[in-house]
Amino acid sequence: MFDSLSDRLGGVFAALRGRGALNEADVRAAMREVRIALLEADVALPVVRSFVDSVTEKAVGQNVLRSITPGQQVVKIVNDALVDMLGSDTADLELDVTPPAIIMMVGLQGSGKTTTTAKIAKRLTEKDRKKVLMASLDVNRPAAQEQLAVLGSQINVATLPVVAGQQPVEIARRALNAARLQGYDVLMLDTAGRLHVDQALMDEMRAVSDVSSPAETLLVVDALTGQDAVNVAKSFTDQVSLTGVILTRMDGDARGGAALSMRAVTGKPIKFVGTGEKLDGLELFHPSRVAGRILGMGDVVSLVERAAESIQVEDAEAMAAKMAKGQFDLNDLRQQLAQMQKMGGLGALAGMIPGMKKAQAAMASGAVSDKMLIHMDAMIGSMTAKERAKPELLQAKRKIRIAKGSGTTVQDVNKLLKMHQEMATAMKKLKKMGGMKALMGMMG
Ligand code: GDP
């Protein structure tokens, strides 16, 4: 469902990440594109505004622009802001009350309220082993009560028997009594829908809420209706105290605006999304996964997270200065190894940063494993300061001593020295291309 938004943002960030250095104007230009992409995805204007403002403010900060990987950092900032906008955490049902816990379902006609009632009942029965009773309070639509009974029989969940002529509040009372007497854990009240938000609907909802004191009041809205879904949610929020929102038809080709604006506009979490007509088409809403899907850059985000402050501009600049003098000794190698380990080891790095692969071909060709990283660190640790600074001192005798000291073999020590040699050569070549900055630029 977020396909076109994802495509557009992907384009913006590919352009940003392709560059080694960024300035404020680059970031502002990219943010203008982000703004258009969000508006086209039907995200509410005030939400777009505050999103773009907050991301811009963080992204033009000195730390980002001066970092070695500004493009990636900006992607990370956008990702975090998306997660924030979507509601940080998953929000499951909170039914921790004296049973029966009441779940009141509200929403407009056709939003998928009755179907979603059955979906939740199925989930509670099968996953949480709860004893659930469903009751339809919809006396306006002739077949509504029967529809719920049919769904109930499909999933083996009890429904309250229909008594002709009863009004919603009476039905709610009867359902509550039945649930208490028969020891149900959860009672689901499927209230009547309307075509539009109107006062009679709201009054009825409040009356039902008063007699049943629901633990959850869930609003069901159709994601395909975009901005309208958000407006409907806003009107309901003003009238009853909702505990969450469920967006249906997320399997359709909605542009995503409803999902993205809901939290900011209503202050309520999206608890579930409906992903199909079948009764198992219900999923908990995961803000971080959705943000990841929208950006399609999960790898970049997790890499930046791990690298976080582990690579400092100052370190990189000091390294570049040494390289400029043609120095890259074993101390530098050791520092690099430590950094790799901090970032999750070689396995995590491999593949994430194609540009780095070349510079580390030496390591890759030696099929270096994470265990070997630890060995290498031990070997370098067994050397004297002089040896580290001047690897050419390391002749046979010294190699034997180092192998013994680090619990490795002379072959291992040779491998380490060969790798260092190759890296030093690679770095010298890189220096000609622009040094460390160029190397890190390739990380995009
Ligand atoms: P109500 O009037 O709000 O109770 O709506 P219904 O539960 O009767 O649903 C209206 C239609 O939407 C039915 O045909 C449902 O099968 C369909 N529907 C509900 N939820 C979803 C969903 O998440 N995805 C899809 N594709 N269809 C849904």
UniProtKB/TrEMBL annotation:
One cellular component (GO) term of this entry: signal recognition particle
SUPFAM superfamilies for this protein: P-loop containing nucleoside triphosphate hydrolases (SSF52540), Signal peptide-binding domain (SSF47446)
GO MF term list: 7S RNA binding; GTP binding; GTPase activity
InterPro entries in the record: AAA+_ATPase (IPR003593), P-loop_NTPase (IPR027417), Signal_recog_part_SRP54_M_sf (IPR036891), Signal_recog_particl_SRP54_hlx (IPR013822), Signal_recog_particle_SRP54_M (IPR004125), SRP (IPR004780), SRP54 (IPR022941), SRP54_GTPase_dom (IPR000897)
Entry's localization field: Cell inner membrane; Cytoplasm
E.C. number: 3.6.5.4
Keywords associated with the record: Cytoplasm, GTP-binding, Hydrolase, Nucleotide-binding, Ribonucleoprotein, RNA-binding, Signal recognition particle
Swiss-Prot/TrEMBL catalytic activity: GTP + H2O = GDP + phosphate + H(+)
Official protein name in the record: Signal recognition particle protein
